[in-house]
Amino acid sequence: MSQTVRRAIDILEFIARGPRTQTEVGDHLGVHRSTALRILESLTEGGLARRLPDGRYAVGHRLAGLAQLALEQFGLKEIAAGHLRTLGEHCGHTVHLAALEGDQIVYVDKVDPVDGVRLYSQIGRPVTLHTAGVAKAILAHLPRPTAEALLAGCDFAPHTTTTITDPAAYRKALDETRARGFAVDDGEYEDYVNCVAVPVRDSGGEVIAAISVTALKAKADLTALERVVLPELTTTAETISRELGWRP
């Protein structure tokens, strides 16, 4: 990559975080103000940057349009697929991707372990809201009215001895999930499996999906999943979020 192109990319990333003066751009690049100005003028002519009335530079409207067109070429499942398979190969457990679709949270992809037990979950089927880790990871980060609307049809039926059947207790679990950044399923639908799950964000920072790793308790309990699997799971979700356009 040429030095000029690299500098142009650096400038776009810099001004995308907030309007900057010519001097600030030059200092950020470590170049003379005249060099920064030359690149800024080229970006402005191309519509990728714009000069504000106060003299500072911000991203241009053309860049926003190009970003939207680019995002429309990618779907969540397509972006996530390779990352999910890599995660599954590394951890040796079942990996799920679930997404918010209308008034449901639905499994959109699944990676089964090569030599493990296949779980009941099916791509295209809704998740069980009050038990699934992916559901908690999504619901915990939705606006409260949206989450409550989704939960309005939840029966909180018991499936195992650890199923959360009290709505108030479930809301508390969502608060805990949001605070620590990940959700758990402690054998709440099938008592012989457990899982950890983390959210996936879109370009606007909204949580639109979640990824989970589900394991047989005999192979890995929650403590083991949190210690061994959670770090890579979190990194995978962040990578997918970034490819969807999210920036911390």
Automatic annotation (TrEMBL):
Keyword Nucleus: no
IclR-ED domain segment(s): 62-246
SUPFAM superfamilies reported in the protein's UniProt record: GAF domain-like, Winged helix' DNA-binding domain
GO terms classed as biological process: negative regulation of DNA-templated transcription
Entry-linked InterPro entries: ArsR-like_HTH (IPR011991), GAF-like_dom_sf (IPR029016), HTH_MetabolicPath_Reg (IPR050707), Tscrpt_reg_IclR_C (IPR014757), Tscrpt_reg_IclR_N (IPR005471), WH-like_DNA-bd_sf (IPR036388), WH_DNA-bd_sf (IPR036390)
A Pfam family the protein falls into: HTH_IclR
Keywords: DNA-binding, Transcription, Transcription regulation
Organism: Streptomyces bauhiniae
Alphabetized GO MF terms: DNA binding; DNA-binding transcription factor activity
Domain HTH iclR-type, first and last residues per copy: 2-61
Protein name: IclR family transcriptional regulator
